[in-house]
Amino acid sequence: MTRATTRLDLHDIQRGVLSPRPTPYAATYLLLRIDDPADGRQFMRRAAEVVTPAADETHPLGDTSVSVAVTHHGLRALGVPQQSLDTFAWEFRQGMAARAAALGDTGDSAPEHWEPPLGSPDVHVALTVVAPDSDRLDAAIERARPAYAALPGVTAIWRQDCHATADETEPFGYRDGISHPAVEGSGIPGSNPLEAPLRPGEFVVGYPDELGGTQHVQPEVLGRNGSYVAFRKLHQRVAAFRRYLTEHAATPDEEALLAAKFMGRWRSGAPLALSPHRDDPVLGGDPHRRNAFGYAEDPTGYVTPGGSHIRRANPRDADVAGEPRLHRMIRRGTVYGPPLPDGVLDDDGVDRGIMFAFVGAHLGRQFEFVQSEWINDGVFFGADGARDPIAGRHRPEHDAYTIPRRPVRRRLHGLPQFVVTRGGEYGFMPGLRALRWLADLPG
């Protein structure tokens, strides 16, 4: 029996929830602190006029999107009643810094080392602008600036500018932004034609999810058509990554294959599942083919290792503990910092990496589950405590990476920490009606 398609209220949902980022892109993350509740509520009123709705195909900003997310501290600063705050997800109420141990944010990634003010009670609102180029980005920022600039009780406290390189790669050199799930009722196609659309309640509060349940926030106007987000600034140790590859490969071709076995894709974006022996840049550049694959025919990981980054983050049809569709995420990554010049193997001291953003309706079983159980563990596919070779939190007892092959597997040891968390926060992206409800809270 075919289930009925749920209709999404796209006029009320922020475009930043459902729409993939443009290619190429420029982006800015701006964090704000609310010092005066009245000014904060006025900002919500103005933000409702600036935020881009998902349904508006003729918006004057075109492919540009302006999004607003509010933290738990921010909702409190606006005057949301405690009985309403108590209906939000408990991970959201705790905040990302308090969840550090569960997320693997220890050692160099621990909150005490985060970039101020990330993870602090001062972070109340995140304003995100994404555009196809820097000119349209600047225009969108200028359009949004009056929403907060003239309000003395709202202060901009942090900014991170991001960009796409000419070849659309992230700092380690891989093509990024490839995978995007289809959300039922959104009208936006997914990147994998083999993946059935997911129920909208997996990503937007107030709709049925894959289990048939519906997430709620009280009052309904505050939660419906909103989504949870996780923002993370992830510093990438590019020189260390390059050195590890060169030290464990005898030739450039072997180095390229090792990098592909770590990621699950060649650097061009071509997946090992479709091009197991050599890179295929034409395939990597084809958005209609490069994501149309599964892992069911590769159960042992001879082609795509079970511990590779993209297979961990989305096991697709692989036989693993759990149901991958229940842990599916909308993931956005935007690059910050200049690229390390080609061939350089020594750290130049420049901060570079990715601003990672998760979007979904279930912080616990989506973002936190993937981070703790799939990225920082390997039990789900029978690899005990093995961790993601690229993004995992490595410890001496779990610093190895296994590449299945015949006749003898390859076992790599001494994996350094390639990615370090510089900070982050959980937020909630309200629907446009919810922004107006926040604006009308009593003083």
UniProtKB/TrEMBL annotation:
UniProt keyword annotation of Iron present: yes
Xref: SUPFAM superfamilies: Dimeric alpha+beta barrel
Record Pfam families: DyP_N
PROSITE patterns in the cross-refs: DYP_PEROXIDASE (PS51404)
Keyword vocabulary terms for this entry: Iron, Metal-binding, Oxidoreductase, Peroxidase
Cofactor(s) named in the record: heme b
One MF term in the entry's GO annotations: peroxidase activity
Residue ranges constituting the DyP dimeric alpha+beta barrel domain according to the UniProt record: 61-143
InterPro entries documented for this protein: Dimeric_a/b-barrel, DyP_N, Dyp_peroxidase
Family listed: Belongs to the DyP-type peroxidase family.
Protein's name according to its UniProt entry: Peroxidase
Coiled-coil region: none
